[in-house]
Design a protein that fits this description.
Blueprint (H helix, E strand, L loop, with lengths): L37 H22 L32 E2 L3 E3 L3 E6 L2 E6 L6 E7 L11 E9 L2 E8 L4 E9 L5 E10 L11 E4 L2 E9 L11 E7 L2 E2 L3 E2 L6 E2 L2 H4 L8 E9 L7 E8 L4 E4 L3 E6 L12 E7 L6 E5 L9 E4 L4 E10 L10 E11 L5 E5 L5 E4 L6 E7 L2 E7 L9 E6 L6 E4 L6 E5 L2 E7 L5 E7 L8 E8 L3 E2 L8 E4 L8 E8 L15 E8 L2 E9 L21 E6 L2 E6 L2 E8 L2 E9 L5
Parallel strand pairs: 15-17, 21-25
Antiparallel strand pairs: 1-10, 2-3, 3-4, 4-5, 6-7, 7-8, 8-9, 9-12, 10-11, 11-16, 12-13, 12-14, 16-17, 18-19, 19-20, 20-21, 22-23, 23-24, 24-26, 27-28, 28-29, 29-30, 31-32, 32-33, 33-34, 35-37, 36-37, 37-38, 38-39, 40-41, 41-42, 42-43
């Protein structure tokens, strides 16, 4: 089950000192090689298994826990359908609420709900369990994400009972009613991340990243596969989505087997519209650490401890996996990205930009919440990707000013990188945001009257949000330079007695006002007004949705709508009864303003610059 307390592994300092790999007599290939035969895999597997056995003996009777950890256990265009704060245009991310032309679809505590919004309605329509009918143990699965493609709804969760990613399809009828279609299981370990989402929807294709622990002693059982649920008690035989000779491994890893090469990093693409849920995978060899980023044409996976160099050279690998899963490429790199927002594929310069720190825990579970050491910006030309035998040269790393704090926030907005840091429950000490223009080589430090727990875009500018140490929550706009000028602090609004109610990227949304100046619009964010709740950021404990307007570069508070959790009734929850991915979202449906707060949908209207509640509906199931 998902743990609430972090036991962090040793932090490995990987300063940004990557150099060119030593010249080799081998010619540089344009893609990462594959194992050419089953016998080749057997030989490599035996060597890795020996290394793993030796490592286990070394660690026997010794338990070392280092690094940071939480101090207390924490459980873990104006169009009607564009309501998710996605990182990449055209790449929909799995979430808790999606919109069709006439219905909102909500995933909540192991159930799917539809609420009609067409014709200015706001009325609960139907509900269905997010698991297969007849499943007698749904509580062993966490249902985390949902995507909608036409009239197909897909839920994504991790099943501990079936040791894999559980994917179920449902049909949405024109009247809003729901019906179950089928369930499949993908080979994976728990994909949970406190910052990233496991699934993306791109042109009808479900694209998923999944780590697979590699048991090299019985490697065949670790290959990516799909199993179909046949009836309430039976799951079918695995259908392999990749063959043994389709595993990608750079030559330097193959020639130096190590216990650290213990993870298959798999990318699977499934046709949501196919009758048999057709899936295809590819997989690359790497270590425990990973961060992944998905664009409209590729999946990038950064894994540590797998590069070509030694202690002072590039020790990590960055894979580029095209969405057609062919021609996998890699480059050796150094450092630790913090999360998916550390990456930006830039078509304008044909570069991949990556923010790295000298210490990190990777993107698994709570890893993104802890990093440290030096900070640098890697400017990597796309033609650097090849077979993984060369390292990005040191000159490609721009050293950046390093903020104090282990909780790092970063976001690319337009032609700028913004970043900041702080410490959990003490973010206000690092009250500054750093701005690095992508087309220059300097860094600007902009002082703020509060700390930073969130960075996001508001039109051509940025917003920094965080506490000030006195119980207030600050919102500060950052005016980003267009051209050769300097970026600067815009206006600030301080909200009394409040903190962020969720740390998920989808919990924030900005709707531009296209009739005003660039950057004019309205934004919304869940907040927690009970400041003694230590879980406020992680588990959907928001008690209100606050709205902030922006006009002529000036921010103004527009008020809030409050949840009525005190009148909540038992819902008979059977599965996924902890809100790991939150439970509150701002929703802008054309000109309509709504807030999802638990089992409530609240609609508001703007009257003289202030939010006024119009109506609310409770779609909670009866116990």
């Amino acid at each position: 089950m998902r743990a609430g307390l972090i036991l962090a592994g040793s932090l490995v300092v990987a300063g940004c000192t990557a150099v060119e790999a030593q010249s080799s007599s081998k010619s540089l290939s344009t893609s990462v090689p594959k194992f050419e035969s089953v016998e080749a895999i057997e030989a490599f597997a035996e060597e890795v298994a020996k290394s793993q056995r030796a490592q286990r003996r070394e660690m026997e009777n010794t338990i070392t826990v280092t690094g940071a950890r939480l101090e207390s256990a924490v459980p873990l265009e104006d169009g009607a359908t564009d309501i998710t704060n996605n990182q990449e245009a055209g790449v929909d991310e799995g979430g808790l609420v999606k919109a069709t032309k006439d219905f909102l679809v909500v995933l909540r505590r192991g159930r799917i709900f539809t609420i009609r919004h067409g014709d200015n309605a706001l009325s609960p329509t139907d509900q269905i369990n997010a698991f297969a009918p007849g499943d007698d143990n749904p509580g062993d699965t966490w249902y985390d994400e949902m995507l909608v493609d036409g009239n197909t709804i897909i839920t994504i969760g991790y099943s501990y009972g079936n040791s894999g990613t559980e994917i179920s399809r449902f049909k949405l009828a024109s009247d809003g009613s729901l019906s179950y279609q089928d369930t499949h299981y993908l080979t994976s370990a728990d994909y949970y991340s406190s910052r990233n989402y496991a699934s993306r929807l791109i042109d009808g294709q479900l694209v998923m990243y999944a780590p697979i622990p590699m048991n090299w002693g019985d490697w065949r059982t670790s290959l990516p596969s799909v199993r179909k649920r046949l009836d309430p008690a039976t799951v079918g035989e695995p259908r392999k989505t990749v063959t043994a000779t389709q595993l990608h491994i750079p030559d330097h890893l193959r020639e130096n087997p190590s216990w650290q090469t213990n993870i298959l990093h798999s990318v699977t693409a499934c046709d949501m519209r196919s009758e048999d849920f057709d899936c295809e995978s590819t997989a690359v060899v790497g270590s425990w650490s990973r961060n992944f980023y998905i664009t409209g044409d590729a999946v990038y996976v950064w894994t540590s401890g797998a590069g070509v160099g030694g202690e002072t050279e590039a020790r990590d690998l960055l894979y580029r996996i095209p969405l057609d899963l062919d021609n996998v490429q890699a480059v050796s790199v150094s450092g630790y990205p913090v999360d998916q927002f550390s990456f930006k594929q830039d078509a304008e310069t044909d570069n991949l930009f990556v923010v790295v720190r000298g210490q990190g825990l990777g993107g698994a579970m709570w890893g993104g919440e802890f990093s440290g050491g030096n900070t640098a910006l890697l400017r990597l030309p796309m033609d650097s990707f090849a077979d993984g035998s060369r390292a990005a040269p040191m000159g490609r790393y721009q050293q950046l000013a390093s903020p104090e704090g282990y909780r790092f926030q970063n976001r690319f907005v337009g032609r700028h990188l913004l970043y900041a840091a702080g410490d959990w429950r003490d973010e206000s000490k690092s009250n500054a945001v750093y701005v690095a223009p992508l087309d220059a080589r300097w860094v600007e430090r902009i002082s703020l009257p509060h700390g930073v727990t969130r960075l996001d875009a508001i039109g051509p500018d940025a917003i920094a949000i965080g506490p000030n140490g006195e119980g207030e929550l600050g919102f500060s706009s950052v005016l980003l330079a267009q051209g050769t000028g300097a970026s600067r602090l815009g206006s600030t609004e301080m909200m009394g007695a409040a903190r962020e109610g969720e740390n998920r990227s989808h919990a924030f949304f900005f709707r531009p006002d296209r009739s005003g100046s660039p950057g004019d619009g309205m934004m919304a964010l869940p907040v927690q007004l009970e400041l003694d709740d230590e879980r406020y950021e992680f588990l959907g404990s928001a008690s209100a949705m606050t709205f902030v307007g922006r006009k002529n570069q000036k921010l103004s508070q527009m008020g809030m709508v409050n949840a009525s959790y005190d009148t909540a009734r038992p819902d008979g929850c059977q599965a996924s009864c902890v809100d790991w991915y939150g439970n509150a979202r701002p929703i802008f449906l054309g000109n309509r303003i709504l807030a999802l707060m638990g089992y409530e949908l609240i609609e508001g209207t703007v009257d003289d610059g202030a939010i006024t509640e119009m109506r609310r509906v409770d779609f909670a199931p009866q116990e």
